[in-house]
Amino acid sequence: MSHSRTITVTARGDRELVITRRFNAPRQMVFDAHTRPELIKRWMTGPENWTLPVCEIDLRAGGKGRYVWHNTENGADMGMTATYREIDAPHRIVHEEMFDEDWTGGGTEIITTFEDDGETTRMEMVIRCKSKEARDNILKSPMSDGMEQGYARLDRQLAERRAA
Amino acid sequence: MMELTEPFDLSQPAISKHIKVLEKAGLVSRSRDAQRRPCKLEARPLGEAIDFLEQYRRFLEVRYAKLDALLETLKTVNDPTAGTG
């Protein structure tokens, strides 16, 4: 766990998914990159052809956020509305997420914490589902076919590049 | 059940309890064969869960690599959007 930049994704208890990641930057900067739309748009994209043209955030308890990802290849849009519950900058954010096409079984509550660790910042994100059933359904669903197709296409391109 | 206790340093009731939890989670199924109640590992749901977590990890890894690059830019360039506010 002391490796910098190692990501862990685990299922915890009955209805949680937990993500941890370390960033080689000060906590305020990592917090800003997670909460300022002009910065979020620069990294919360992908896979491959998915961009994030819409990102609006009213960062206060009770405030709303709106994210729309757009696939530049097939024109598809994927929207998500966030509702902020607790903001303790630059340490902790509690918010709820609901995708327009709900694939999470009723939305999720997400608790994000940022801790100083020497020169680095350790992030933990707890994604809490509505029920054990909702969490288990997420675990059973392969990630969207589009995502797998994206990876398959990337694999092909890399193979072609190697062959060339 | 007796056969399952052999490789472990656990009592039969303890093994029984673990099996019940696994059965409830759909990871083990049990049938009846006279006096025996053979257990069968149901690996499919376990495989599905691992597949999702691995796919999700790969997806996030790509995203966070982009964030790493952005953070490096913010650190080197005195970007006005990267203030402390």
From TrEMBL, chain A:
InterPro entries: ASHA1/2-like_C, START-like_dom_sf. Pfam families: AHSA1. GO terms for molecular function: transferase activity. The keyword Transport does not apply. Residues 24-157 form the Activator of Hsp90 ATPase homologue 1/2-like C-terminal domain. Keywords: Transferase. Coiled coil: none annotated. Belongs to the AHA1 family. This is Glutathione s-transferase protein.
